[in-house]
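G., the chain you wanted modeled:
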Amino acid sequence: MAHIQVPYGVKGVLDFDLPSESLALDTAKRFPGPLPDLERSVMEALENPVAGQPFSKRLAQAETVCILVDNFARLTPAHKLLPPILKAIADAGKSAEILVASGLLREMSQAELERKLGKEILASGVPVYQSKARETWDFDFVGVTTYGTPLSCHKRFLEADLTLAVTMTQATLWGYGGGGSMVVPGVSSFETVEWNHRLMTSPYSNVGYEPPLNRMREDIEDACRLSGLDMSLLAVLNPDLEVMELTAGETIAAHRASVAKYDRHYTFDVERAGGKVDLAIAGSFPGDFFFAHACWPVANLDHFVKDGGTIILATPVPGGMAHYSYAKDYMPPTPEAIRRLFEDMFYGKQALWHACLWMPIIQTMARKEVIVVTEPERLDDFALNRITAVTSLEQAYELAQEKHGDSMRVGNFPYGKWVLPTGLNDPNKRPERY
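Predicted structure as tokens:
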């Protein structure tokens, strides 16, 4: 028998045994530990950028510095990354402020700010602001991207002499996070975000794809250039949420370099495993409080599972469904339901930024079966959203086995939210239609 451990959010892990001959692809692996001297590594990255001037040279030419940080929806340990940066700014006699790149998500609570920034930074006197995309008076018009997106950015960001984004690189439903995403949607106005997010309906504006295939990301990067964001510091985390890689520099180049580092840890060759599997088993992170975030592995594993196959997702989601609850109006995801979703987005019944949080998931569900392993008190939530849910891995595995038979090929993806297949952006494998 093969023994696997499936991460189960805040509840720890689920242990499960399956026939050894069934396990065709196992992505459980040993990851590097944390960088031994993180503060030193932060400054070394900033002083040795992959493109553009070192941070110290930029700082010497500035009086005010605006640092962008991501919000509760990302796991970037800003409280560990910011102290040496803030010290360098203070030692240079310059003024710093922090702007939370919230996009269209809600404000962070005081407790969430403490988790993100740490009590010491909050008590330091460094001003902390949160971008609120609907408060139009906080934004100034910058210009129009080549895709026709009118760009308006937060005034505090635009008025600073030096701007630095501190964030992380990870696979997201729309490509890879970090970098230019700190501008759009991060510190952009509501209308800018909506204009950009119309491109999320493009076939390759989804998980793991980069420009030129990814039109939405291409527009984000054009907006980033227009905005004047000077520099980014990007972290890659291991599954224990420790910083194992850092990259800094001009944002687009730094993001590309950070994605390359990410891919070395989190991409796997489907063909070496004998092709796509019948069943994928995925876990969830402690930060996956809502199903709106815990559901992401479904899109990642679309690349690894045959059409008609099954994805088992283990997640306790103590916070419930959150934004995902709006997807129930389009379940089951028949062609007619998807057509109706496009119609509703066009007429404003579903905001584009909102639909983009779950549309890639239901599109995958149109081709693959999803079974959720969760807590008893969440079963009704999933029933309401027309998703099969059970309370044990054993139950879920039996359901999949009934469908695929004893010879089914299984993939173990403990960190399914972050895994990708190799070669998605290989120019030699580029799809004809893009």
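The radius of gyration is 22 Å.

Shout if anything looks off.
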